[in-house]
């Protein structure tokens, strides 16, 4: 059954959906005059709900394509040294392979760059920030942020950076096409709308696990044992990673205001003071709410493509999937020495879902085998998401 | 501090005339009240009695009484009203031009960005344009005080800075607090005067940023955050014995008083630079005390009575 059938027909029209009866859900470009199946900007697996799209930024092919150029364009940083893709590389499911990232000016970022796969469904964005609930709002943080500097735009250079785009005939045409109604389409609001539109097309739903769910592929014995563990009450991974997107914060077109759950979890990574403390500036939700119980609470990331998004955790402090499983099996991490020493297993704010689990070596190997089935090779290599500036 | 001691101190300050603005050479004849009409409310930055701008050397800052230079000095003033002797508050009718760079309104909320830096010298991160006035009108009446907030009202705090219909006063990127989807209410930064030649401050800049915290949005709506810790400073200048009159007085923001309890040359390790309003940052404690904001709630203490940062002086 498609999500279109479950939702009111009105909603399907409102989000511009076509092909409601088919196995795939599609989102069509409201500005396209092409008859179906023309004008399709997004194809969704049948088990994915239609995504939420802001009323003032409907998905169009022209915005998506402009956004792809901007996403990969280093001219968008103050000093011309970084693009969004510098920390969000498609072959790594739009993560960067580093424990923590480095901004355009060389300033270290305290957090691990997250995958952007299916980011359109994230109820909140970044690792622990309940204020950021739209891609358009989130994008201003890496563009203009000062603590730390990422892309390095500021009051002094913003006009110069925009001029770089104005001076490129390719952008003159693409901005005009994407924002035909604007007398002057060059502006940061439109840059944000275009990049957000591109990000909304980063849909990963063709992994072997997805094919298995749709009855199109089988899992081998180890993968199947891992799947049973993952979704069972022994390993209990599914509590935080059980949705179609393998996380627990989902927003979509049918979400109702006031009903979207936005849990954050302390998994017992640290306990630097014996009172549950995490090291600043990586204290999770606490740094937004300042509520003591929010210490160390972070958003559970989607596990899609987790096989290529190492290292793991908000600070990249666990290098491999087997080590991640050891960490969860132990019910947290005991750091025995150094400035971060402390027994995270005893963190008083730790989630009740993270407890000692008796996992055999076989169990762990099976779980890793299952997690590898979440890799979506089509997504990692999709030419529609690729760098338009790359040498042909 | 217990309440009786606080009251004693407050009474002492009132007796000294600090509330009414009598602290700067107006010890002679008492002020006459304000009869209403056109209002031109002027703001000025000082360190103690010395004027402060991007070109000046500021003396006597912080617990070490060090010299410093300004790096930024901008703040938002909201919901100005004039107060009668009986406590009646009458809102200022804010003058707002078409395409106004400084003033904005949303429903009954009004806002003016006061910008006392000009992007020169050490203020290079700011904007060249400046604004030191709030213009408007109040109906005729006998007014003894002026009351306002320093902060951006919630109704104006979460607008997209790049949306075409957002008031221009809320669009400067350097006043964006994008991680909260809000604005920096007050951005007051001082820096090592020898930063580019022979720096001596262990932390080169003290950043005093006031803004709302504890913000959350509704994912289904995709916008419209609200903040549990508002951090809007409230204050009133003038009282029946020493009335405030905008024709006779201007409002000084005293950088020296704001930072008097702060060690501006250093930063507590593991905390944000200076004070970015964090509840657990020791560097915020003296500043919030001067602002008379309770950090835990983000609400003014006693309506801001006894705040040390704003004072009225003769025009």
Structure description:
The complex is a heterodimer of chains A (392) and B (315). The longest helix of chain A has 13 residues, at 188-200. Chain A is mainly alpha-helical and 392 residues long. Chain A has 14 helices and five strands. Chain A has a three-stranded antiparallel β-sheet with strand order 1-2-3. Chain A has a two-stranded antiparallel sheet with strand order 4-5. Chain A has helices at residues 3-6, 9-14, 61-71, 135-144, 158-166, 169-178, 188-200, 208-213, 221-230, 238-241, 286-289, 321-329, 361-372, 377-380; strands at 17-18, 25-28, 40-44, 334-335, 342-343. Residues 1-29 of chain B have low confidence and may be disordered. Chain B contains three helices and 21 strands.
Short description:
With 392 residues, chain A is mainly α. Chain A contains 14 helices and five strands. Mean pLDDT of chain A is 92; it is low at 1-22.
The rough form of chain A would be described as globular
Please identify the oligomeric state: heterodimer
What proportion strand of chain B? 35-45%
Count of helical regions of chain A:
14
- pLDDT under 50 segments of chain B (min length 5)? 1-29
Percent helix among the residues of chain B?
under 10%
Task: Throw out a few tags for this protein.
heterodimer; A: about 400 residues; mainly alpha; Cytochrome Bc1 Complex, Chain D, domain 2; two-stranded antiparallel ribbon; 14 helices; 5 strands; disordered N terminus; B: about 325 residues; mainly beta; nine-stranded antiparallel beta sheet; 3 helices; about 10% helix; about 35% strand; globular
Draw up the topology in text:
The complex is a heterodimer of chains A (392) and B (315).
Chain A: H1 3-6, H2 9-14, E1 17-18, E2 25-28, E3 40-44, H3 61-71, H4 135-144, H5 158-166, H6 169-178, H7 188-200, H8 208-213, H9 221-230, H10 238-241, H11 286-289, H12 321-329, E4 334-335, E5 342-343, H13 361-372, H14 377-380
Antiparallel strand pairs in A: 1-2, 2-3, 4-5
Helix pairs in contact in A: 3-6, 3-7, 4-7, 9-13, 12-13
Chain B: H1 3-16, E1 37-47, E2 50-51, E3 57-61, E4 66-84, E5 89-91, E6 93-94, E7 103-106, E8 109-115, E9 133-138, E10 143-150, E11 176-177, E12 182-183, E13 186-191, E14 205-210, E15 213-218, E16 223-229, E17 233-237, E18 249-254, H2 255-258, H3 285-291, E19 293-294, E20 299-300, E21 310-314
Parallel strand pairs in B: 1-18
Antiparallel strand pairs in B: 1-2, 1-9, 3-4, 4-5, 4-8, 4-10, 4-13, 6-9, 7-8, 10-17, 11-12, 13-14, 15-16, 18-21, 19-20
């Amino acid at each position: 059954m498609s999500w279109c059938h479950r939702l009111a027909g009105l909603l399907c029209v409102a989000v511009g959906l076509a092909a409601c009866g088919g196995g795939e859900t599609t989102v069509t470009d409201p500005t396209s005059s092409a008859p179906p199946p023309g004008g399709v900007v997004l194809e969704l697996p049948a088990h994915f709900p239609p995504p939420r799209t802001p009323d003032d930024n409907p998905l169009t092919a022209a915005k998506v394509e402009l956004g792809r150029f901007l996403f990969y364009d280093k001219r968008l940083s103050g000093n011309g040294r970084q693009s969004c893709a510098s920390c969000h590389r498609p072959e790594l499911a739009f993560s960067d392979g580093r424990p923590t990232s480095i901004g355009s000016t060389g300033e270290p970022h305290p957090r691990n760059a997250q995958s952007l796969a299916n980011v359109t469904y994230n109820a909140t964005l970044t690792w622990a920030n309940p204020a950021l609930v739209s891609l358009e709002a989130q994008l201003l943080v890496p563009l203009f942020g000062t603590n730390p500097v990422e892309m390095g735009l500021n009051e002094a250079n913003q006009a110069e950076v925009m001029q770089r785009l104005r001076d490129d005939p390719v952008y003159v045409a693409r901005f005009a096409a994407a924002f035909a109604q604007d007398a002057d389409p060059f502006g940061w609001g439109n840059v944000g709308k275009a990049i957000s539109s591109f990000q909304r097309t980063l849909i990963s739903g063709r992994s072997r696990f997805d094919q298995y769910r749709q009855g199109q592929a089988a899992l081998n014995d180890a993968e199947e044992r891992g799947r049973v563990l993952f979704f069972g009450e022994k390993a209990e991974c599914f509590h935080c990673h059980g949705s179609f997107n393998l996380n627990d914060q989902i927003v979509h077109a049918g979400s109702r205001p006031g009903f979207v759950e936005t849990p954050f979890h302390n998994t017992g990574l640290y306990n630097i003071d014996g009172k549950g403390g995490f090291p600043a500036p990586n204290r999770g939700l606490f740094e937004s709410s300042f509520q003591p119980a929010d210490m160390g609470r972070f958003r559970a990331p989607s596990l899609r493509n987790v096989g290529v998004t190492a290292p793991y955790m908000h600070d990249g402090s666990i290098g491999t999937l087997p080590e991640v499983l050891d960490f969860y099996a132990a019910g947290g991490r005991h750091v025995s020495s150094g400035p971060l020493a402390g027994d995270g297993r005893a963190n008083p704010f730790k989630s009740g879902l993270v407890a000692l689990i008796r996992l055999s070596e076989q169990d762990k190997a099976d779980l890793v085998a299952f997690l590898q089935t979440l890799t979506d090779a089509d997504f990692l290599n999709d030419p529609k998401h690729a760098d338009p500036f790359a040498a042909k | 501090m217990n309440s009786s001691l606080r009251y004693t101190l407050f009474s002492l300050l009132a007796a000294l005339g600090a509330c009414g603005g009598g602290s700067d050479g107006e010890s002679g004849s008492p002020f006459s009240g304000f009869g209403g009409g056109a209002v031109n409310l002027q703001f000025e930055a000082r360190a103690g009695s010395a004027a402060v701008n991007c070109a000046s050397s500021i003396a006597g800052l912080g617990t070490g009484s060090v010299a410093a230079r300004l790096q930024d000095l901008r703040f938002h003033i909201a919901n100005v009203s004039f107060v009668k002797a009986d406590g009646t508050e009458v809102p200022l009718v804010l003058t707002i031009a078409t395409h106004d760079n400084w003033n904005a309104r949303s429903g009954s909320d009004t806002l003016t960005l006061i910008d006392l830096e000009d992007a020169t010298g050490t203020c290079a991160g700011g904007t060249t344009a400046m604004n030191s006035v709030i213009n408007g009108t109040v109906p005729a009446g006998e007014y003894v005080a002026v009351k306002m907030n320093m902060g951006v009202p919630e109704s104006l705090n979460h607008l997209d800075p790049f949306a075409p219909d957002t008031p221009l006063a809320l669009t400067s990127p350097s006043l964006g607090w994008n991680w909260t989807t809000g604005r920096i209410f007050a951005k007051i930064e001082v820096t090592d005067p020898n930063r580019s030649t022979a720096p001596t401050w262990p932390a080169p800049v003290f950043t005093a940023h006031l803004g709302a915290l504890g913000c959350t949005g509704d994912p289904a709506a995709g916008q419209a955050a609200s903040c549990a810790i508002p951090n809007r400073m409230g204050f009133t200048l003038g009282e029946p014995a020493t009335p405030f009159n905008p024709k006779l007085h201007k409002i000084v923001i005293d950088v020296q008083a704001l930072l008097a309890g702060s060690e501006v040359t250093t930063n507590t390790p593991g905390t944000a630079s200076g004070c970015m309003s964090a509840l657990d940052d020791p560097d915020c404690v003296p500043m919030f005390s001067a602002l008379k904001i309770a950090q835990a709630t983000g609400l003014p203490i006693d309506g801001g009575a006894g705040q040390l940062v704003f004072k009225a002086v003769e025009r």
